[in-house]
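Prompt: For my understanding, could you write out one protein's sequence and backbone structure tokens?
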Amino acid sequence: MPIFVKICGLCRGEDVEAAAALRPDALGFVFWPRSPRAARPEDVAAWTRGMPAGIERVGVFVDEPPDEVRRMAETAGLTVVQLHGRESPEACGAAWPRAWKAFPLSRGPVDMLKPYPVEAFVIDSGTASMPGGTGVAADWGAAADFVRASPRPVVLAGGLSPDTVAQAVDRVRPWGVDVSSGVEAAPGRKDAARMREFVNRCRES
């Protein structure tokens, strides 16, 4: 089964256009104001208008109230919300019909995550001050253990790049991969060549 590929942290119209042309499975947009990749819902709606069919539009939120998540998701035209904070299972269920829940690998046993009514889990190497997008590689051994035990599909994030993604997929065996800083020229500015190389490496995996 082909690996699911998400390019995240898009915050410029030209980068969205370049990423969409590569036909990844999803594009990701960060709605956390403290991120150097923060985007506005109305901009995302404009950038993705006319985007090729079949590409998911994923919005990343950190501890936003469910009603605010819904408002921003509707404005942006999202298909999936990715909740990257300390959201409860109830908040995840109320936020949007299709949700993913992100966790740092240090969160605890996978059994703790079973109550979350989400489509997928995202595992990342976030810190207390930065929930994701740190560019720090996840612990692949711990990630592989998580994937084997998880009751949901798992998206691997954290420090992935064109140089590491094939090895990460082989080691961890996730359902999907999520890249942000690993395909950038600078924070918030994507490198079109690196995005193309990343997608190609994933398709070859």
About this structure: The CA atoms of residues 2 and 203 lie 7 Å apart.
